[in-house]
Amino acid sequence: FLFAPAVEVKIEVVIPEKERSKEEMSPNGKASPLIYKVNGTARHYHLEEHPIASNPYHNPKDVVEASVCHVKDLENGQMREVDLGCGKALLIKESGEFHAVGHKCPHYGAPLVKGVLSKGRVRCPWHGACFNIGTGDIEDFPGLDSLPRFQVKIEKEKVYIRASKQALQTQRRTKMMAKCISLSNYNLSSTNVLIIGAGAAGLVCAETLRQEGFSDRIVMCTMDRHLPYDRPKLSKSMDSHPEQIALRPKEFFRTYDIEVLTEMQVAAVDIKNKTAVFKDGFKMEYNKLLIATGNTPKALSCKGKEVENVFNIRMPEDANRVVKLATSKNVVIVGASFLGMEVAAYLTERAHSVSLVELEEVPFKKFFGERVGRAVMKMFESNRVKFYMQTEVSELREQEGKLKEVVLKSGKVLRADVCVVGVGAVPATGFLKQSGINIDSKGFVVVNKMMQTNIPGVFAAGDAVTFPLALRNNKKVNVPHWQMAHMHGRIAALNMLAHGMEISTVPYLWTAMFGKSIRYAGHGEGFDDVVIQGDLDELKFVAFYTKSDEVVAVASMNYDPIVSKVAEVLAAGRTIRKRDVE
Questions:
Q1: Strand runs (DSSP E) across 142-226, as ranges?
Q2: Mean per-residue pLDDT for 118-144?
Q3: How many CB atoms lie within 10 A of CB 36?
Q4: Which UniProt keywords apply (predicted)?
Q5: What is 310-423's CATH topology?
Q6: pLDDT mean over 159-170
Q7: How far apart are CA 249 and CA 569, in angstroms?
């Protein structure tokens, strides 16, 4: 069931424009204020679903209709990319019915025809985002936008698609959102929803509230100086500028009344008075609170750690600065973490030399296992990265205040103009110490399946939490990955609105190095065996991580869409046994 062949269709991958379909907007491009419907509670509104009219397109010049195939051309469970002349659509046949949606994943533009179709949704082959084939709505992450949905009709055994040209061009659709009612009569120091942190979890929480028709005040605050951005790109494409990797443009926050306070740090939370106290003394009352502060990178504790040109990659400016300083110079990276390895890969073409120092004997050993780790290490060595394994840094030496050498415990001295530290991170939850909010021994905020803490009205999401993972019998885990942060934010928002929604998503992550990606789904912590299919030397393989007799995770390189297939099987609650993959 894992290796069923997909329908091969020739495709072209085009990077999506940073535009969103305005199909579901009123003519002025803003959510129409006429569709608020009071549901009985004060200042809490719900959007009406608009009935699908026979012609949902306002402008007939913007519409294209084309015959795309014969009804018998597609079997049930098949997908095909079809061309409508001014753009493409994904045609899907499931349970005898045809559906048509955008053909590119709005996240990074992956061709969805190469993804996995299962029970009314299509899953992206690259990073695992899921879309409902009937509505186009995003159901699992990463990414923020949904797919445009197109009308399908059958006439004389032929399949026709009717679509808006603009939607065919943009290949994305932002869900309808509410706006804030009467922002002007708010007290500046009180908000209905306060979100601490402006990463994926915080942003998705705010957007979900608006999508669900919540029209009261939402305030996000962040220590960062930027609006929410695509953090995984900091180590994968290090010279990206903040505006290039912004998750939403400035106007978006204005349009939907999501207030973002930048460079604002919360120093304490007073749960009795429902107040957040900021470092500068400013206080803000809240009704509902989301803690989504993420992680703080660990620093080195060795001698000379304060010399110049030693970096943790925390913000776009850090990444940009490292690239500038590393060009034609000697770089030392401490820690073969995801961040450390991605930075090493990115800098090899730019730096004179790249050295990597790591305590373990093989990179990613705990995560991907020894064999996959070795294959990755070989790929790095063939790209001129020098490894110093099973040792650590004892001293950073300077000349005129700037880094000159990195001294290892093994006695080896490495020339270094720049040092990047990627030795892990700790949850950014110090400010909650005396709050009464339940925090475990490692500093993680403990939440239930609804992302609720032990304090009513206080939720937490993202890298700073442990939550019960359905996939592993509700074991409390920390999953510090981009897709999971999105889902946490969504679940928290739905439960702020009392939807009673529990999290059940399958973790999905990826890493990109030298133009190659490793995709991974599941939760492999504590695996006791790895079953490998394919060829590790050729970097074309799939690795199944098993615990006793059960597959708990999968990783692959050049083997799409296997990881998305496994993720769909696990998401359906099915168990994959070791014998199924051997």
A1: 149-155, 158-164, 193-196, 218-221
A2: 97
A3: 17
A4: 2Fe-2S, Apoptosis, Electron transport, FAD, Flavoprotein, Iron, Iron-sulfur, Metal-binding, Mitochondrion, Oxidoreductase, Transport
A5: FAD/NAD(P)-binding domain (3.50.50)
A6: 95
A7: 36
Is 209 in contact with 218 (CB distance < 8 Å)? yes
Domain 190-296+427-497 top-level CATH class: alpha beta
Hey, do 190-296+427-497 and 310-423 end up sharing a CATH topology, with the first three levels equal? Answer: yes
471 by DSSP, 3-state: which? helix
Residue whose C-alpha is closest to residue 363's, from 393, 333, 384: 333
Query: Using one digit for the tens of pLDDT, what is the confidence trace for 334-357?
Result: 999 999 999 999 999 999 999 999
Helices and strands counted in the chain (H then E) = 11, 38
- End-to-end alpha-carbon separation of the chain, Å? 13
At the topology level, CATH places domain 63-170 in Rieske Iron-sulfur Protein (2.102.10)
Q: In the 8-state DSSP scheme, what is residue 451?
A: S
Contacts of 576 (CB under 8 A, 6+ apart): 2, 544, 550, 551, 566, 569, 570
**What are the structural domain ranges in the chain?**
63-170, 190-296+427-497, 310-423, 515-580
Q: What is the pLDDT of residues 79-92, one digit of tens each?
A: 999 999 999 999 99
In DSSP terms, 444 is beta-bridged to none
Name the pTM for this structure: 0.90
Which position has the token pair 């949606």?
A: 101
CB 571 within 8 A of CB 563: no
Our CA dihedral for 456, 461, 466, 467, rounded to 10 degrees, sits at 70
Which parts of 328-392 are beta strand (E)?
330-334, 353-358, 385-389
Q: Could you give the angle at the alpha carbon of 260 between the alpha carbons of 257 and 266, nearest 5°?
A: 135
SS (H, E, C) 222-273: CCCCCCCECCCHHHHCCCCCCCCCECCCHHHHHHCCEEEECCCCEEEEECCC
**Cα 237 → chain centroid:** 16
Confidence at residue 183, expressed as pLDDT on a 0 to 100 scale:
62
The pLDDT, as a whole number, for residue 255 is 95
DSSP state of 349: T
Residues 6+ apart with CB under 8 A from 480: 295, 425, 462, 463
One of 1.10.260.40, 3.90.226.10, 3.30.390.30, 3.40.640.10 is the CATH number of 515-580, namely 3.30.390.30
